[in-house]
Amino acid sequence: MKNGGLRKSxxxxxxxxxxTLVGDAVLRQRTRMAERQARLxxxxxxxxxxxxxxxxxxxxxxxxxxxxxxxxxxxEHGVRQLTGDQIVQYGDLINHAAEHLLAVIxxxxxxxxxxxxxxxxxAFEVDIGDVLRDCVEAEKPQAAEAGVALSLRVxxxxxxxxxxxxxxxxxxxxxxxxxxxxxxxxxxxxxxxLAQGNGxxxxxxxxxxxxxxxxxxxxxxxxxxxxDRARTRWREGAGLGLTIADxxxxxxxxxxxxxxxxxxxxxxxxxxxxxHQVSPIEARDAVFGNGATL
Length: 294
Known about the structure:
Blueprint: H1 2-75, H2 77-80, H3 84-116, E1 124-126, H4 128-146, E2 149-154, E3 161-163, H5 165-181, E4 188-195, E5 201-207, H6 214-221, H7 241-251, E6 255-261, E7 265-272, H8 280-288
Parallel strand pairs: 2-4
Antiparallel strand pairs: 1-3, 4-5, 5-7, 6-7
Helix pairs in contact: 1-3, 3-7, 4-5, 5-7, 7-8
């Protein structure tokens, strides 16, 4: 019995030692994997920041050069004897360039305010149907010029959404504008809003455009991430709109989801809970993570 007990004790001791070794090995492997993941995420963040700085240099310099160049031509009108059509054309180019500069600066300020938790909403009960009608009407000329069919479907008896109508307009104008911009001639964009059973609202912006892969969707939602850098010209925008739209939806207590198939189209769905609003700090943490920085 003593020998049997000793063998059992030795076996238990060996099993405990083996379990400890296995546990240590698993822990070391998990630590290595966590370190590798953290390193990859840090490298990605640094690359995104570097690309953003390079893109911003182009985004700001190009329209600024337009303003300086054509304003100089206007200044020299007495020498060059510009025609009336040329003056109008140059003034129009200067105006577009200045509007783009202002939009880029406002986008950067919006991101900064959201990150710091100081971005506040002027919240009231909003008719989301009216907001979408305004956005669709504003985008119809661009859709007609691009040969894209743009339509709106609004359900009856929609519940009001508590929020800032100006910021909600910014969200859906951006989503609809993107859908039209990335849909080829002959395609369609459908905007639909439905009431949810819990008293909230669901808005869908569906297009038959170029679509995105899963990796491209992830990149598009990252701060300063751009999917198609070949389109990064000053007239195409700085690539901050979708990030800001996602952040503004979260600021309203809602959720933005993207379903897309490469070459077939994209469906952006925004859901709002009933009469809900989060604080700026909570929204900052939801968008960037607790204490995260860009």
